[in-house]
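TEACHING EXERCISE
Course module: macromolecular assemblies
Task: Read the component lines below, then compare them to the predicted structure of the full complex.
Student: A.B.
Group: 4
Components provided:
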Amino acid sequence: MRILSGIQPSGALHLGNYFGMMKPAIELQSQGEAYYFIADYHSMTSLFDPEARRRYTLEVALDFLACGLDPRRAVFFRQSDVPEVCELTWLLGTVTPMGLLERCHSYKDKIAKGISPNFGLFAYPVLMAADILIYDSNLVPVGQDQKQHVEVTRDIAAKFNDTYGPTFVIPEPLIRAEVAKVPGIDGEKMSKSYGNTIEIFGDENVLRKKIMSIKMDSRTPEEPKPDADRNLAIQLMKLVAPPEEAQRYEERLRAGGLGYAELKRALFGFYWEYFAPARKKRAELAANLDYVEQVLREGAARARAKAREVLDRARRACGLS
Ligand code: TYM
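Instructor-supplied answer key:
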């Protein structure tokens, strides 16, 4: 089984990225052949600062390795180190109906936010389909917001297979219900573009402030809270605290008598502790950037060999030499 996923280098990674994609991906790396990459081509649709792209790419590499991606098990690489994926994007684009792309939520959302659409933004799902199909991927661990893109990938693969004969493996998305949509500090989906993120790594005081500003209702500590399971701090605590501890805080909140400041301080403590080993590993990696670069280069070489094989299969299928 081949498992594949990608992440854009468009800023510091947050708990949504970690629990929605990185953690499941890291857990799956021993279950099959894993291909994980930094989607730097995709970041070009919304980030136009070359220095920032270079910096974020390195940061994502450090984050992923620090969190437990094991380069002896998973093939870890930069998307743009396998330019074959761009050629496959063209091949796939020629069988992709316009309507399929026009229906994509993430495209429509970005336009609604006032981003002026470029061709890259519109073609974004086709490049993503190429990412997935070029490695004969079976399973794609992602958060809920990427589900439609994996469905589009399946449609494009089926259309190509119908048109030119069996060529591509049809992939399945893997979305864990309990972390499909990790909420941010305002209760909306945690997302860089909403400014509501809690980063995995960063300055302790800044992160403490963010956690202390998590949105709560205005009830007094004394009031019992029957909806304690829907409290944002409790939801996040369930991700980072030992289950029995999270349970204990939830029950205390439900019964009444637990103040929100105490609850958030406890959440910060669990969160800080949860990432302590990764923080230590990240500091070590940051002092050894040559190693990180070597991991990405070796990953790219392995990924490229597979990509070449599938691209050649697709070229032959559609009558290119
Ligand atoms: P990106 O970089 O926006 O996000 C990376 C991963 O994090 C997940 N995620 C979340 N999951 C749960 N709750 C949240 N609040 C949350 N926020 C983000 C995303 O669902 C994603 O899985 N287009 C992709 C990158 C990509 C890709 C691919 C992924 C390019 N090619 C091929 C899979 C396969 C993206 O922008 O993810």
